[in-house]
Specification:
The protein is of the alpha+beta class. The chain has 10 helices and 6 strands; from the N terminus they run H-E-H-H-H-E-E-H-H-E-H-H-E-E-H-H. A 4-stranded antiparallel beta sheet has the order 2-3-5-6, with no helix packed on it.
């Protein structure tokens, strides 16, 4: 009887430790805080850097397309009576050397429109930088919270292993005293092996997520693994309507689609301008024998006449108008997709928050009290081992479900932050 009391006391102590939440296993690595990792990803992630460099490249285009074409310089020599250089230069006013310059001049307004078009392209590229930045940070948050959950799950499995050892020892005491059977002992040992399997699978997932985190942070895979902080529930202080309004204003995919519509409006104006001629101005200086003849000065204005309207210009304008309609449709699709995703994530946050409360205030305390009572009943032969084991597995499952739900709650918040640009932590 004294031995049974000792096992009962040890079991309650172990269960109490699990109820209060076990700390993560100690690590030599420094705990990585999420804000620090987000800042590091913004600096070092190669995908963000590549998108930013593309935007910087696009910023160099407006000045280029708004500049006049390079002028052309021409050198002429006209001979009279012979192909020899300067033949007739001193005795004929038809022989001369000439130096000229010409300049292509687009129709007024075309260069300005091309500058605006290139500027819109740069603005669209800027929104792509923001899309990539938010996507990377969102992936980082999800991986971080999943690693934190797996760390908590490892602690739960370790605590449950200790409880199973207590149960196995209790079953063995009863078996040796003739009040139990060997099957109970073997069943407890089997469950410990199953926990070992779960722990190994847990470490496999952690390894994959650690590799993903290092890739997102731009770190070598040989760098030390990250140790996460313990996650806690974050409350949502914004309403669904407020977040939806923020998404419509701040979401880079919607902003990029709007700028694409503006770009296509400018493309239509350029297509209309192509119906007007471009010009070419030329100036030529000609010189014969200066002792006998005066110099000649020639100025010429030319124009490119857009005569292929049906074959070229009208299809070009029609294409620009179709592209504008496509951009407008894409804007509507992006807006609806963002609104739908935001609504789903908001509902996920609300319902997961309710679930967490149910776990904390109902399911977990009830299951752990039932397990304690079941262990006491098993010790006094009022309950068999299978019922006690079922209660234990209920506690294990509910504990893991709680932390998984908490991880999903925080990941959904990360998705909302990506969609709206609003910080919710």
């Amino acid at each position: 009887m004294k031995c049974i009391r000792i096992w009962m006391f040890a079991f309650v102590v172990a269960l109490t430790g699990m109820s209060s939440g076990m700390a993560q296993q100690p690590s030599k690595n420094e705990v990585a805080k999420l804000p620090d990792l987000l800042a590091a990803a913004e600096r070092n992630n190669p995908q963000i850097q590549a998108a930013r460099q593309e935007w910087q490249s696009m910023q160099q285009m407006p000045a280029q397309v708004a500049t006049l074409p390079d002028p052309q310089v021409a050198l002429q020599q006209v001979n009279v009576g012979s192909p020899r250089p300067f033949a007739g230069f001193t005795n004929s006013d038809f022989a001369y050397i000439g130096l000229g310059v010409s300049q292509d001049i687009p129709y007024p307004g075309k260069l300005g429109l091309r500058r605006e078009l290139a500027s819109k392209d740069a603005e669209v590229a800027e929104q792509k930088v923001e899309v990539m930045r938010r996507a990377v940070l969102s992936e980082l948050k999800i991986a971080y919270f999943q690693v934190a959950f797996l760390a908590r799950q490892s602690a739960i499995l370790e605590g449950d292993r200790e409880l199973l050892q207590q149960m196995e020892q209790a079953a063995e005491v009863k078996y040796r005293s003739g009040m139990g059977n060997q099957q109970d002992v073997l069943q407890a040992q089997l469950e410990q092996t199953k926990l070992l399997r779960e722990f190994t699978a847990n470490q496999l997932k952690v390894g994959k997520l650690q590799a993903e985190l290092k890739q997102l942070l731009g770190r070598p895979q040989t760098s030390p693994d990250l140790v996460t902080e313990e996650i806690s529930e974050s409350a949502v202080t914004r309403t669904s309507d407020e977040l939806l309004s923020a998404a419509q204003s701040n979401n880079p995919q919607i902003s990029g689609a709007r700028k694409s519509v503006d770009r296509q409006n400018i493309a239509i104006e350029i297509a209309k301008k192509d119906f007007y001629p471009d010009f070419n101005a030329q100036f030529m200086w000609q010189r014969t024998d200066p002792s006998q003849y005066r110099a000649y000065y020639q100025f010429t204005i030319g124009a490119r006449i857009p005569i292929y309207r049906k074959k070229k210009l009208q299809p070009e304008l029609a294409q620009a108008q179709i592209d504008k309609n496509r951009a407008q449709t894409d804007l509507e699709a992006q807006s609806q997709e963002v609104s739908s995703t935001l609504r789903q994530e908001y509902i996920a946050v609300e319902k997961s928050s309710e679930l967490l409360k149910i776990y904390r205030e109902g399911l977990l305390p009830q299951a752990k009290v039932e397990l304690q009572a079941g262990f006491a009943a098993y010790q006094s032969n009022r309950q068999d081992f299978q019922a006690l084991l079922a209660s234990f597995l209920d506690v294990l499952k509910l504990d893991e479900e709680y932390w998984q739900t908490l991880s999903e709650h925080e990941a959904a918040l990360g998705q909302i932050e990506e969609l709206t640009g609003v910080s919710l932590r």
